[in-house]
Amino acid sequence: MTVFIAILSRTAKALLTLLAIAVLNFFLIHAAPGDPAVVLAGEAGAADPQMIEQLRERFGLDQPFHVQLGKYVWGILQLDLGYSFRQGAPVIDLIADRLPATLLLTLTAFVISLVFGIALGVAAAARVGRASDSALTTLALLFYATPLYWAALMAVLVFSVWLGWLPGFGYETVGASYSGFARVLDIAKHLVLPALTLGLFFMAVYMRMTRASMLEVSTADFVKTAKAKGLSGPAIRRRHILRNAILPVVTLAGLQAGQLVGGAVLTETVFAWPGIGRLMFESLAARDYNTILGVFLVSAAMVILFNIVTDIVYRIVDPRIGARA
Amino acid sequence: MWKRFSSNRPALVGVVLLIAVIAVALLAPVLFPNGPWKMVQRPFLMPMAVDGLPLGTDTLGRDVAAQLAYGAQVSLLVGLVSTLVALLIGVPLGALAGFYGGYVDEGAMRFTEFFQTIPNFALAIVLVAIFEPTLASITLAIAIVSWPPVARLVRAEVMSVRRREFVDAARLAGLSKPRILLTQVLPNTVSPIIVMASLMVATAILLESSLSFLGLGDPNALSWGYMIGAARTVIRSAWWLSFFPGLAIIITVLALNLIGEGLNDALNPHLRQRGQKP
Amino acid sequence: MTYLKTTTFLIAAALAAPLAAQQSGGRLDIVVQPEPPGLMMGLLQNGPTQLVAGDIYESLLRYDSDLSPMPSLAKEWEISEDGLTYTFHLNEGVLWHDGTPFTAEDVVFSADVFLRETHARLRASLAYVDSITAPDDLTVVFQLREPFGPFINAFEAGTMPIVPKHIYDGTDYANNEMNATPIGTGPFKFQEWVKGSHIHLVKNEDYYIDGLPYLDEVFYRVIPDAASRAVAFETGEVDVLPGGSVENWDVPRLTELEGVCSTGKGWEFFAPLAWMWMNNREGPTSDVRFRQAVMYAMDRNFVKDVVWNGFGTVATGPVASATNFYTNEVTQYDYNPDKAKELLAEMGYDGETVRILPLPYGETWQRWAEAVRQNLNEAGINAEIDSSDVAGWNEKTSQWDYDLAFTYLYQYGDPALGVSRNYTMDQIQKGSPWNNVEGYENPELDKKWKAAASMVTPEERAAAYAEIQKEIVDDAPVAWLQELEFPTIYRCEIQDLVTTAIGVNDGLRDAWIEQ
Amino acid sequence: MTTLAIEHLTIGLPPGADRPFATEDVSFTIDKGQILCVVGESGSGKSMTANALMGLLPPGVTVKAGRALFQDQDVLRLPEPQKQALRGARIAMIFQEPMTALNPLMRIGDQITEVFAAHNLYSPAERRMRALTLVREVGLPDPEKIIRAYPFQLSGGQRQRAMIAMALALEPDLLIADEPTTALDVTTQAQILRLVLDLRDRRGMAVMFITHDFGVVAEIADTVIVMREGRVVERGAAAQVLGDPQHEYTRRLLDAIPTGRLPPARPKADTPALEIKGLRKIYRTGGGLFRPVREVRAVDDVSLTVGRGEVLGLVGESGSGKSTLGRTAVRLVTPDGGQVLVGGVDLAALSEQDLRAQRHKVQMVFQDPYASLNPRQRIMGALTDGPIQKGVPRAQAQARARDLLEIVGLGADAARRFPHEFSGGQRQRIGIARALAMDPDLIIADEAVSALDVSIQAQVLDLLRDLRDRLNLSILFITHDLRVAAQLCDRIAVMQKGKLVEIGTVHDIFLSPRQDYTRQLLAAVPGGGWAHDAGLPA
């Protein structure tokens, strides 16, 4: 019950935050130089003032700023993200088209980074001071220091171009019209490289965090208690240290969801992944206001969702939180 | 503290690497008086293929070694200045929130959370695009997306220091609140801030390179990310054009991380002992 | 003297009848970059849209690489001797993709109603047109007010796409739901569009020329990253890289691969010419000596050889060599930094910084700007690059907020269609990046441009344009750089891919795959 | 019958420590059914001995020499699997901090049954049964509920009982208890001590009980060893060591212990230095969109007076509100009602601005010597900030600071140094000097000696007593330890749950307490009986 109430109150706060984000971004994006009507007219091949005026009228850009803002906010309150004039479709449809790809990519990367990060962190902590620990921590440091896009480029070069093991870009084999399991397999193959490169950096983060946290918890008094009970080393690590050490990692992971979603812009660009990050980047150059704003809102909502999920996980793992609230 | 730091071999490696990078950056105008943009030879020369061009030439026949050296200037400058700006935003905000609590805290933290909810790289892209890519706008954008963790850290530190008894003693001495914050509380939060700052410089360098890679770099200031972005299309035929700047980024970021960890161990001796030989 | 020209073509189908060697079937994967904003060609005339929709929509004519008209929806046509009446005879049995018969009314609706409202570039040509009528279902007559030499070049698919009247008449064109599933008369039908991934077209089984098209289906693949596009071609995922879809540095590597062919043809109609706008209104660029100095300072051959990897030709003036009425008898601006320095000294250049605005179309253009900046710096001009994205570039050029700005424009086969618009005073209008953006004012030349457009015989026009070119090159209102060449790269088993002056844009009708 | 025999145990510290050995040549034995108390101050090596037995030595600390014979096996030399089998089963251990010694994320029941699981004993159902029995045996209420509870849902005493249940699970022959009652309130401590005694009697196990408190020793020890800097300085039967200490160090320790020996009564002062009238402070927690507000009445209508030159002791268990009262009296906490009158000025009613001008009137000496000095400020700064703020010229303030440092026994040179260069006791002296530097009407000492080792504690108490006499100081002395209060105070006020229970002269409170609660507190003081036996005023 308390969990439910806590989530309810968080959601209420989250909705306010989202609205604030919408307003702020509206200001930001409209402050950018460049008129979407001119861009669109340019794309049409030739522009004369008459056409630009037509376009401005259609976009509602001829109206005063506060009217535009008011209309936008009013639309948002009705879950209407506006219309993309450049793409000729409602923004919500554009995003709905692209969102599954982004969700698949970020969630996979999230899970990969969390699972492998924690596993490697535990392994390193168990071998602390030994050569294998140094090797693992050095590796993590390297991952941490490697630019995401560079790793992506190198991965494509090696695994796709030289070795030919995995497709280097795209979401699925176009026109292969696979169905059922074959399609899942096909998408999974395309997913490997982008998810890995996106997850690599965060894997390093979680690994270092897990290792540090494991080492810190292993000096806790209750670990001494467990030893005094006659538990074996692995049992202590599993039952006592890991469970306590994982809490800060989960918190951090939830907080970093925003970076993960942002990092998807780079990954989606290099791997031609048809997600919302790329949609935003492309819309930016065209000053496709509504689409940029829509993507921002949706990705902020994703961040909040990640946060709420980690919060729930935290509450499940840690009995103290729910009771205290 | 220096003793503890200097006994940490990885941290020393970090210092040596960073000094090397800084030296190259400072000496760039001496080593390469022609600047990084001068077209000096045929394009796409392999490293060592021609004397005097140890790292080869790029797509326009410019000296890659010169570009790396000048790129170091830009990367370090952006990394340092953006971190400073982020500190200038985050430290006061976090300090006020942590020290005064109540509505100040609530307001400041809402503000911070708000910025953390916006995916930061996406925000940086939009900011740079809006202000147009110049060194100043890139630096500012990186600062704007980097300060929230600073504010959170400073707030937490201030809150914990504020509860220490010497702060009560200072209040009993009749010191004003701003003075207590400035002279008693903040000096005691410096160590974790320094550690975080050193790691932030590393992150800022990565961010700058990512922006440049996407074409949002300052076209008049050659940076490593800019080089990789420019060379990305020829990665198959001229691997060295993206490889060396990538390596330079890795080395610099690695060095900063090693230093950051070394500082952390040296400044927080309690944490240092976990698991290692005391 | 009266001049009569009647052109009559035999039924095209007979000429294009399938030869024994041509094989039906197969699928083609073509890169489209960037992803088009939409496919309704009557509303959007940008490159990507035309690349895809050029196979869905058709116009009355097509043009061969010498820019001579060929039949398309019109099987034959006549131009009256006074150059005022254009009569087109349409093919019989043409169906829209939804099965509705295509008639002359559709042509009248498209040219006179729909495109007048939506197509700015055609609107300029339509200004010469007095009336468009359909005497019967298979005949269309364009009546001009005064002679307009280039009018015969206006019937290309991108210039005058024929749209279905039964779908658009009386609707709000821009918001018509059918824009998402375009209906044309072309050889391929729209099947599906997965945003961010691909557009799928399938063979039009009811196409009015028997046996065409040969291909079963076409996928236009959206791959946002130039390097990935190259990889896609190498790994066999795509078969055709239209011009400009990979960076120039990758072209030699890709064309050297086994079984890969390339061609520079298929751009004659557009004849893209690149130059830098130089702001004639203010700053150092308002001084003709400075502008000439810029021309001398640039090593344009280096750019052609290195940045463009040898593709293209250094431009001599405002008209591209593929465009009608080109002449090279003008002042040549060879690379000569010393001459540039002399001119700068003569004008007393004070070192004021000039901003170079590159075209935000990828690495090639960025490198080009860097090379120019270096050239200018070495000649003693303080230049720095002003960076911007597409929207910013549009804004700055159309609002005249620049010193030097890269651009390239299509010429559409005739100086009156694609060249004069950039140099006459009536084209000085804020808000468009495609007109006389540099602010060049020369009333004498304006008169000559106008006269040349209305002359009836090609010989007269050629002489007039030669004079114009000679004069304007000395004024250097803009810095002409290069005639661009965008090689199309494809697998050699694909035959007849590029057969017209707009290449891949409408080439799939005749393309086939050798098994 | 000997359960454990330690012979010549020497434990080496890593290089760089303040001395080479944690323990040197330590020998002792514990018989079946016997309780051995190991007594010593911090750093004496008493815990290291226990940790060595359990194989819980920190990294870098190693056994250099000696044997520990347990059932004829040298447990120090056993291979790890056998040590593991021994731990929890034959030798069990409980720790000082019940707050941290239990895994916060595991239910109590699971933590108990884990002992059986670790030694592969019994079926899950039987483990649960046995856990219930154990929980009942250590006197925890509502066993069914307790084994499903998480540690944070239990009080400190309950947690320590749960720890003991775990330790007893497999009926060990030896129980090692490392300061198990130090973190507990006196009344709870008394209960736990009784439980240990009780279990020893019923099970007949040997107990090694580590403590720094001779009061505790008096309560439960059969035999005693006293350790100092890693060596055993005295050993013997409890009565003998307490009654007739041989070694000079033991004597010093015993002398230092505030035994409840009552000082002679002093004449009562008439002018009040501090008057507290009807003081109230309520803490509200929670509150928010969906949460109810919870109220804790930390100080509930308390009135008392501290006379000029008087030391008033304020005693109570944790949560009694005594610290809040002290902090309210200096206006570190703003009260919800009532008055705090110092020299006729009501501190509680002043604005923040006016308050700063009046701050110097009441000063405080804090509990934690490590937190009460700014680590980044020289001592001189700490001692002169306040006076300079008050308007004293800098040179004069500095001269006065040097004088004060002399007075508290540190020497004027201390002014130039940083806090980390001083020990805990020295820092507490600096804290006192800092308070004196403001020339306050009243000093509030909040658990000012609680964090110190007994011998240091005695020195600081001596200093306070000395200052009181020399400077005629008025002190509100807050402590949880009745014995400490007895040593220094003229009068004692007892607080419980925010209310003032009883106030009176030391003699009245100790010898004729009127309230039940006061009597309970007095009864719970460890070694109370022994102190009386030792011929103190009764």
TrEMBL record, chain A:
Concerning SUPFAM superfamilies, the annotation shows:
MetI-like
Note the PROSITE patterns from the entry: ABC_TM1
Which InterPro entries has this protein been placed in?
BPD_transp_1_N, MetI-like, MetI-like_sf
Instruction: Give UniProt keywords alphabetically.
Output: Cell membrane, Membrane, Transmembrane, Transmembrane helix, Transport
What processes does the entry annotate via GO biological process terms? transmembrane transport
Top-rank taxon of the source lineage equals Bacteria
Per UniProt, subcellular location reads as:
Cell membrane
Name the principal localization, coarsely classed.
membrane
Write the protein's name: Peptide/nickel transport system permease protein
TrEMBL record, chain B:
Q: Which UniProt keywords apply?
A: Cell membrane, Membrane, Peptide transport, Protein transport, Transmembrane, Transmembrane helix, Transport
Per its UniProt entry, which superkingdom is the organism in? Bacteria
InterPro entries the UniProt entry points to: BP-dependent_transpt_permease (IPR050366), MetI-like (IPR000515), MetI-like_sf (IPR035906), OppC_N (IPR025966)
- Main localization, broad class: membrane
Q: Which organism is it from?
A: Salipiger marinus
Annotated protein name in UniProt: Peptide/nickel transport system permease protein
Which PROSITE patterns does the UniProt record give?
A: ABC_TM1
> What region holds the ABC transmembrane type-1 domain?
72-260
Query: How does the record classify its membrane topology?
Result: Multi-pass membrane protein
TrEMBL record, chain C:
Q: Which domain of life is it from?
A: Bacteria
MF term (GO), any? peptide transmembrane transporter activity
Q: Write down the InterPro entries for this protein, in alphabetical order.
A: Peptide/Ni-bd, SBP_5, SBP_5_dom
Give any Pfam family that matches: SBP_bac_5
| Residues annotated as domain Solute-binding protein family | 69-415
According to its UniProt entry, the protein's GO biological process terms are: peptide transport
Ranges in a coiled coil: none
Keyword Signal in record:
yes
Q: Which family does it belong to?
A: Belongs to the bacterial solute-binding protein 5 family.
What's the protein called, per UniProt?
A: Peptide/nickel transport system substrate-binding protein
Automatic annotation (TrEMBL), chain D:
Domain ABC transporter: residue ranges: 4-254, 274-522
Pfam families linked: ABC_tran, oligo_HPY
Topology within the bilayer: Peripheral membrane protein
Keyword entries, A-Z: ATP-binding, Nucleotide-binding, Transport
The UniProt entry's GO biological process terms, in alphabetical order, are:
peptide transport; transmembrane transport
Q: Which GO terms describe its cellular component?
A: plasma membrane
Subcellular localization is given as: Cell inner membrane
Q: Per its record, what are the GO molecular function terms?
A: ATP binding; ATP hydrolysis activity
Q: Which PANTHER family match?
A: D,D-DIPEPTIDE TRANSPORT ATP-BINDING PROTEIN DDPF-RELATED, TRANSPORT ATP-BINDING PROTEIN
Family (UniProt):
Belongs to the ABC transporter superfamily.
UniProt protein name: Peptide/nickel transport system ATP-binding protein
Give the species this sequence originates from: Salipiger marinus
